[in-house]
Amino acid sequence: TLAAVASGPARAAAAVSGVVELFTSQGCSSCPPADAALAEFAADPDVLALGYHVDYWDYLGWADTLASPDNTARQRAYATTLGSRSVYTPQAVVNGRDHLNGGYKTRIRGLIADHEAAGNGLVVPVMVAMSAGRLSVGAGDGIKPAGADMLLTIVYYRDRSEVEIARGENAGRTMVYANAVMAQQTLGMWDGKAMQIDLPRDKIAQNKATGCAVLLQAAIDGAPGPIMGAAKLKGFDRS
C-alpha cells in the first residue's frame, strides 16, 4: 500500500489517469497548437502533461531556451520502443505506448481511455508528497511485467514559462509554455512491491522547477517503454 506515503507528509498528490509527453521546440512553426493543447492537459487534474523541449531545431536560428540534450535523447530512445523511424515535432507520447501529433487533443484523450479500458493504463498506484523538509515518492504493490526493468523516476518541471522568441520560424511571438521539463532522475527499481524514497524538498528549487512528477516506467533495453503509474505535485511554493 501507499498509506505511509499518503498520511505522513503535509501535501500529497494522487495518481493520474494518463501521461502526455510532448516533444516540442520554440523553433518549430508547427508546434504552437500542440503547445496550447499541452497547456490544456496540464490544467486537467487527471492528466500528467510534460513538455520536453528538444534542441535539434536550434540551427534554424533560435536556440530553444528550455531545451536540453537529455530531452532530445529521451525522444530518440522512444523511437526505438515505439517503432518510429525518425523523431519529429510536435510529437506526443501517450502513456509511453503510442505517439501522434501533439495537437490532436481528441485522439490523445481517446488513447488514454483506450489504454485504461484495455487494462494497459496506469494500473500501479504512485504517489509524490511534500512536507516541510522532504519529498516522499512511492509506488504501491502491483504485477511487474516480465522481461523489463521498472524504473521509478522523478521529473522536475516549470509550470509556466513565458518566452519572447526573437529569431527563427516563430520570430516575433511571445509564447507561454506549460510544464517544461527541467531535469529528471531515476530513483530506483521497482520489483512489484511497495516502495518509498525520500528526497530533500529543495531539489525542486535546485532544478529551477515549480513542480515535480513521478513516473513508474518500463525500461526495454535501456529505452523508455510503457508507463504503469504516475503522479504530479504542482504549485510548489519556493518560500
Q: What report would you give on this structure?
A:
- This protein is of the alpha+beta class and 239 residues long.
- The protein has helices spanning 3-7, 32-42, 69-82, 105-117, 203-206; strands spanning 11-13, 18-24, 47-53, 91-94, 98-101, 126-130, 134-139, 149-164, 174-189, 195-200, 211-220, 223-233.
- The protein is globular.
Which word captures the global form? globular
Instruction: List low-confidence stretches.
Output: 3-9
What percentage of residues falls in helices of 4 or more residues?
10-25%
DSSP helix count?
A: 5
Strand order of the largest sheet: 1-6-7-10
Distance between the termini: 32 Å
Briefly characterize the structure.
The protein has helices at residues 3-7, 32-42, 69-82, 105-117, 203-206; strands at residues 11-13, 18-24, 47-53, 91-94, 98-101, 126-130, 134-139, 149-164, 174-189, 195-200, 211-220, 223-233. The chain is α+β, with helices and mostly antiparallel strands and 239 residues long.
Summarize the SSE layout with pairings.
Blueprint: H1 3-7, E1 11-13, E2 18-24, H2 32-42, E3 47-53, H3 69-82, E4 91-94, E5 98-101, H4 105-117, E6 126-130, E7 134-139, E8 149-164, E9 174-189, E10 195-200, H5 203-206, E11 211-220, E12 223-233
Parallel strand pairs: 2-3
Antiparallel strand pairs: 1-6, 2-4, 4-5, 6-7, 7-10, 8-9, 8-11, 11-12
